[in-house]
Amino acid sequence: MEVTEAKTKTSPPKAALRILAEQRWATPDGRWSLIGLAGAACLIATLYWENLKHFTFVWSNDDNYSHGWLVAPLSVYFANYAAERQLRSRKTPRSEPAPSSGVRLGSVLIALGLAGRLVTVFLPIGLVADGSMIVALAGAITLIFGLGTLRTYAFPIAFLVFMIPLPVAMYTMLANPLQMIVSKVAAGVMTACGIPVLCEGNMLTLPGDIRMFVAEACSGMRQLTGFLALTAAVAYLSGKPSWYRVVLVASAVPVAMVANIARVIVTGLIMYYVDPNYAQGAWHTAEGMVLMLGGLALLQLEMMILNAMTEVFAAGSASAKSSEPEGMETPRGVVQGARV
Q: Where in the sequence is the domain holding 60, given as residue range(s)?
């Protein structure tokens, strides 16, 4: 029995959200807060039902956003991770009403969310309504549970942004410059490798009148979204210093670009040296998956370097503290005499 109790104390629970909910349900105020959260969730789902239907339609029919089905379950996982840390630190949920700061901020966030939804009734700007749904959810949580709960679960709530599809016009506006960059860099690299390539916009012409079109799917937007979500999740779960997390998330952009440029270069080499047919259909899809693994390998290499840097910094700070002279305090009487 003693061993079991020790394991229970040291290992975090696997259903932390359920445990916290049970703890809240055990008190009258906590019970009403959970009922209020359920009611707010139902109300938000009703107000944004059309947006949710649009989400599922895009996730099912657009490969650029097929990851959307995973975002909500991952957010729940991150919320459970935050609850585990809360239980591990032995912080019990608040049973008293939310503090005034939580009430004010929660009311403001809910008002902003509803205003965003109301605006889209007159102006069909889907992205505003989609974002306002997350703002309203954050406001409801803050209003019911307080500002401390918002801080604890800020990342799981913010992670829901990755499930929002971009409007076609905005996606094209972002993808077109990336297409140009990828095309020019890939053409330059292949030319440097001895294959003269004529770059006209996003059309690459290789010797033998072999034409390769860098489409929107090859712009890197899909890889960029995936790497941003992945690095954000890894940074949150890593428990590393802030600089580590910022560098890791910021590196998603160059890593995605490098992986996509490599994909275009490999496609051009296959079309020139092997057969253009091997750069189409299932072969092209398999090639993209392999190069995505290459991007993941780059991220893994970067994390190894960052981990080594973290250990060096930690060792340096520890050695600096240990080298501080001890027992060199000035006697109090001398200090007092100097002041007089």
A: 2-163
